Amino acid sequence: MTTPSDRVGARAGGWASVAIAILFGLPAAAQTGQPASAYKAPVISDTGKLKGPRQPIFFRHDIHARQDQIPCLYCHSTVTISSEPGIPAVQTCFGCHQMIGGSTPSHQAEIKKVRDAWANRRPPEWIRVHSLPGFVRFPHQRHIKVLGTDGCITCHGDVRQMPQVYQVSTLTMGWCINCHVQRNVPRDCTLCHY
Ligand code: HEC
Ligand code: HEC
Ligand code: HEC
Ligand code: HEC
Ligand code: HEC
Which residues span the domain enclosing 154? Predict the structure, then answer.
């Protein structure tokens, strides 16, 4: 049995996980202070080599979703009920980053951008990674109902491994139809086209 103070010293950023777990009631794995995976995201010095568009804030899914085990739905909270998964408001970020300032100088510099965005009421303009043409209908919620809330990986690849999100699937009509054929889902043109 470890005491809270043992856990605080367990690893860099450990205190943060404990604080988050207490404040936000995250799942058991996140509450131990040492995630079940005990995964520590690497330091990345050359961000220019990363796949995917460069975002206004270097927000890392490998840190938030893997190292700190924040569930996808904590931030993409409408994915089970709406076509759009939702991108979290700065308020959601600030809920943690009011207290969590970052364990390294580069984290601190990026987190300062979050705090400035909040203070100046100027949300970051995230660059969209996945985008279908306007004449295509894609309801997330219907897919999650069948594939489950862990089913993101089927279409997005393992986002938990990505320091910067990039597109893994082609998102072509053939890609959609292929899975619909395999899973015996209707393929009428009007299912996907307005
Ligand atoms: C702490 C909040 C947070 C968590 C947790 C989180 N995300 Fe995100 N996600 C974001 C933000 C902010 C963006 C927009 C910036 C970016 O693309 O990195 C985003 C972008 C994305 C995108 C790209 C969206 C686009 O523009 O096409 C995908 C896909 C995604 N997240 C999937 C996931 C999955 C899957 C998980 C769980 C394994 C997850 N996210 C967990 C905040 C979060
Ligand atoms: C549930 C709590 C929580 C939420 C919500 C959260 N973060 Fe974080 N964030 C953390 C923790 C913990 C760290 C790791 C701090 C460290 O060790 O430096 C972190 C680190 C960061 C970093 C530095 C590492 C990196 O990813 O490059 C940035 C930037 C960041 N967060 C931005 C954001 C943004 C933007 C949002 C909202 C979309 C957000 N965070 C939401 C907990 C959170
Ligand atoms: C069946 C494939 C599929 C699954 C499963 C799936 N997505 Fe998506 N996702 C897409 C497609 C296609 C788009 C582009 C939609 C568009 O442009 O209208 C997208 C877009 C997104 C976006 C960007 C939305 C925006 O407004 O910027 C996020 C965030 C996202 N997905 C998160 C998730 C999360 C989290 C999960 C799991 C809970 C998930 N997705 C499961 C196919 C999928
Ligand atoms: C990994 C498999 C998979 C992929 C890839 C996929 N789908 Fe689906 N889709 C399904 C399944 C399974 C259902 C049936 C859901 C249900 O039974 O409610 C479905 C249902 C739908 C529906 C019907 C929803 C309704 O209202 O009945 C639409 C529209 C749709 N998909 C569009 C798309 C589009 C557009 C793409 C590509 C961008 C796509 N899907 C890619 C598996 C997939
Ligand atoms: C499961 C979803 C789905 C179904 C069913 C579907 N489409 Fe599509 N369609 C898409 C997606 C996604 C795109 C955009 C990506 C692309 O161009 O490949 C698209 C693009 C198109 C385009 C534009 C192609 C281009 O080069 O710009 C046409 C035309 C089209 N579809 C016609 C049809 C017709 C006709 C049917 C019925 C026989 C049909 N679609 C059924 C998903 C679907």
Answer: 4-192
For 115-153, write each residue's pLDDT tens digit.
999 999 999 999 999 999 999 999 999 999 999 999 999
Q: Which ligand is nearest to the CA of 142?
A: 4
- Distance between Cα 10 and ligand 3 center (Å): 35
Nearest CA to ligand 5 atom 18: 172
Helices and strands in the chain: count of H runs, count of E runs: 11, 0
Q: How far is the CA of 127 from the centre of ligand 1 (A)?
A: 11
Top pLDDT among 32 and 186 is at 186
Q: Which ligand is nearest to the CA of 130?
A: 1
Is residue 5 scored above 90 in pLDDT? no
Radius of gyration of the chain (CA): 19
**CA–CA distance, 194 with 116 (Å, rounded to integer):** 41
Question: What is the residue with the minimal CA distance to atom 22 of ligand 3?
Answer: 85
Would the CB of 23 count as within 6 Å of ligand 3?
A: no
Count of the separate structural domains present in the chain: 1
Q: How far apart are CA 82 and CA 147, in angstroms?
A: 15
Residue bearing the bigger pLDDT, 10 or 176? 176
Region label for 124, one of left (φ > 0), alpha (ψ between -120 and 50) or beta (otherwise): beta
> pLDDT tens-digit profile of 84-103?
999 999 999 999 999 999 99
